[in-house]
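Lecture 7, part 2: worked example. A protein chain together with zinc ion.
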Amino acid sequence: MVTNDRIEHLLRDEAARILAVTEDRPEISRYRIYLSDFPRADILGMSIGHRRIYISYRLGRRALNSDRHLWLLRQTLAHEIGHEIAGHADQTQISFNRSSPVRGLTNRDLGLPWYVIYQPYSLEKELQADLEGMKYWDRLQWDCSIWVGILEDFKRQNYVGDSLHPTQKRLQQASRVCRPQTEVKGAREVKLGQTPFSVSRPSLLSYQVRQ
Ligand SMILES: [Zn+2]
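Predicted complex, written out as structure tokens:
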């Protein structure tokens, strides 16, 4: 774990902003967000349950000066908070958000003590965490095309992910959720990219109900 006042301040602010639109709003003060200098640069974040989340120090540092990395940080936070709120974690399960090809993570890669058991989530839960995260973005009226764009960037960089974080599947899901939808009332079709945020936007909640 590393400390840096400016980055920690940014993390707290961004996490609080996301948490404020979640079911965990009353529990914001119980969240602990840590900076971690993961030995492997491709790990962006990790949630270990009990409202404890680790964020890559490198990502946090870059987010101070780069909009692109700030949005990547917001995606990572939303994804990890999604795991926490969906109740995916328990003491033996840890989740990751990764940015480059990973084969078989070990405790050493994570800087975890040997006695912590690393048990990844299922693909289903990883995709669900993305869906949860996108739901929070929607409530914040953050443009979901940025979320999609991050995954498209992964793809452009030939980052295919791994069996539990397959870029292609994450991108497919995100594109489906973010695509322009027809408004329920009236026949007018509202395209996200062409409308201001204040106009009725696709509800991720109703998307989930249809699943
Ligand atoms: Zn995850």
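The pocket of zinc ion is lined by residues 79, 83, 95-97, 121, 126, 129 (CB under 6 Å). Residues 67-86 form the longest helix (20 residues). Keep this in mind for problem set question 3.
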